[in-house]
Specification:
Two copies of one chain form a homodimer. By secondary structure, the first copy, chain A, is an all-alpha fold. Chain A has helices spanning 10-13, 17-40, 48-62, 68-79, 89-112, 123-130, 136-163, 167-194, 201-227, 232-259, 262-265, 271-275, 280-288, 291-300, 308-320, 323-341, 349-364, and strands spanning 116-117, 120-121. Chain A has a single domain (10-364), classed as Farnesyl Diphosphate Synthase (Orthogonal Bundle), CATH 1.10.600.10. Chain A has a two-stranded antiparallel sheet with strand order 1-2. Chain A starts with 9 loop residues before the first helix and ends with a helix. At the A-B interface, helix 3, helix 5, helix 7 and helix 8 of A face helix 3, helix 5, helix 7 and helix 8 of B.
Chain lengths: 367, 367
């Protein structure tokens, strides 16, 4: 079977018919499950402001997100022979991944000082805004740290509902544990990169591998697969598909962070640049810029006072040095490798088609 | 059986013979287990600074702490009929509680901006100090958030080693889950208290109940008990013992935070006051201070520039208003209630004796 014979044409599959319907159904079940689960978490103390914190967390989890990880978990399960309507475990596990991710994003925004997330105030910002006290910002950050911790603890509880009691569940849990250590370590490497001189392409790619490729794609797929008793060969195939797709996905994200339309991405387009995010895109720009261009990059990248004019200058340098072209080429290369990996016969054909459609969506998206 | 007949004399039991020997043995096993477990966690990326972060976390966990929760977990297990040398589950679970607690303390220090912990630089401070970069403080805080999250994720993995596979383990896990939600919610209420006018005795007592009484005493005892198949009656008895002891323990901590000897406590004595910690002690002082005394409290309590002279003034007000006396009375009352609760026949006699000795230690300690 070649990539062509698994019928990866997006037009046929992703916009209409089976894939879109299943995708929407999975999203709906995950959302419903998360809403119900969070509604059941009542604060142990009767304080209106504590209740408000719980409510904010619920809104954050239920009110947004592309549900990429639950979808990958679901298709990983289907690809390993998981069949509807026998059990809900892949959906519950997907919801747990989403809840874990919410906690991670809340912390991420605290660490980065990001003011917006999903087009709305980030949790720490929202909490700070609600208070008129002088220490409002400190309160917002601390409360967000706690709510992030709470989300991750609850993710654990939700995951246990799907993974307790048998060998498959234990295998899934084991992969989940690995994933947690990997993503936190990837984030650690990411903040370390900020303390180092300039950006380095190799290092930025390592960060991507752990923070995104494994965390967002490979592990969710494998976790879903493990729930359906995936063979080691299938888990390997998921890895060969997931790592390049995850890399391409993050590279697209980095491009959108600089060149995207904030009205579509829901994210202020100056944030990544102001924050001095050490992306692969910027690493290429640094590596290729010479003389005054390099000086301009150093001056503007990571400058809290960066304005639209400075951002336009950086964008121009990224284009002129060929960094953007390099990254677009890399995205296309990795997307191709991912599609190629789907030829593996270990992956059930229907799942392979869905994953091919997802690959298109995730690497060509505009938000 | 009365409290007297269970032989609660500290002299006989806590300093020599059975209790001290068992206490030391349990501490030793917990420490050994934590060291081994953490040595096995290898960073998934080969970066020396990531390895250094892992090492710092290991030192923090292994290098200090009174191991109160593991001891309570152990005695909760023994009190429910758990017998040596049949299994290690109470010790493994105790180690998991300690690892979870390390994560919580790391986050606590970030939230409070505390510079010292256990007589050494707090994790975020240590990490900031290691970097010469301009953003060192931001790096330290972010890295500490991540290491705290990592410690809590690993605590989960360690706990699973002791709680997977049977009804008792599930009961223990269920209590652990409740404990996590309770303590995080208690912390949330605590930081909310900072945003509110003055301190309020009732609110401060609620914070203590969740942040300490349940978290430090009641739940560890019950978790240990559950591992040995404790009856609902025994779990209730642990609650009747644990809640007053936990309250007394925290009240003692608050008194030491203002009146303790930093050379003994390992904690700068001005921290609690500078931070404006809303303790029960301070709430009593606020409630009783009038006119200029109240003004002085408001001016100094929570002032970043508080010096030894200002602290001496606050201490004097705490003594003069009778707030200190009130808290000492409350500690004695709660310690008595805890001892009284140990008369319950559901608790195995040897464990009751050990818990009585622990009560003395935790409420009369100087550090």
């Amino acid at each position: 079977m070649t990539a062509d014979t698994v019928d990866t044409s997006v037009e046929d599959f992703s916009e209409t018919g089976g894939f879109a319907a299943v995708t929407n159904a999975v999203r709906g079940r995950v959302d419903e499950l998360l809403a119900r689960f969070l509604d059941e978490r009542r604060p142990p103390v009767g304080d209106p402001d504590v209740a408000e914190g719980y409510r904010l967390l619920r809104e954050f989890v239920v009110g947004g997100g592309k549900r990429i990880r639950p979808l990958l978990c679901y298709w990983g399960w289907r690809g390993a022979g998981g069949e509807e309507p026998y059990d809900d475990r892949a959906v519950i596990t997907g919801a747990a991944l989403e809840l874990y991710h919410a906690g991670l994003l809340i912390h991420d925004d605290v660490m980065d000082g990001s003011e917006l997330r999903r087009g709305r105030p980030s949790i720490h910002k929202g909490l700070a805004g609600a208070s008129r006290w002088a220490g409002a910002e400190t309160f917002g950050r601390s409360a967000a740290i706690l709510l992030g911790v709470l989300a991750q603890a609850w993710a654990d509880e939700l995951l246990a509902e799907a993974t307790t009691g048998d060998v498959r569940g234990r295998a899934a849990r084991e992969l989940f544990n690995r994933m947690r250590t990997e993503v936190v370590t990837g984030q650690y490497l990411d903040i370390l990169a900020h303390t180092r001189m300039d950006a380095d392409v190799e290092q930025a790619l390592t960060v991507i591998r752990y923070k995104t490729a494994r965390y967002t794609v490979e592990r969710p797929l494998q976790i879903g697969g493990a729930l359906a008793g995936a063979s080691p060969e299938l888990l390997e195939a998921y890895s060969r598909f997931g790592l390049p797709l995850g890399e391409a996905f993050q590279l697209r994200d980095d491009v959108l962070g600089v060149f995207g339309d904030p009205a579509v991405t829901g994210k202020p387009v100056l944030d990544d640049l102001r924050e001095g995010k050490r992306t692969v895109l910027m690493a290429y720009a640094y590596a290729r810029a010479r003389g005054p261009e390099r000086e301009r990059l150093r001056a503007w990248h990571g400058a809290p006072g960066l304005d639209e004019r400075g951002a336009a200058e950086i964008r121009q340098i990224i284009v002129d040095t060929g960094a953007l072209g390099e990254v677009e080429d890399l995205i296309a290369l990795r997307a191709g490798q991912a599609i190629e990996a789907l030829r593996d016969r270990a992956i059930a054909p229907e799942a392979a088609r869905a994953l091919a459609a997802l690959t298109e969506r995730l690497t060509r998206r505009v938000r």
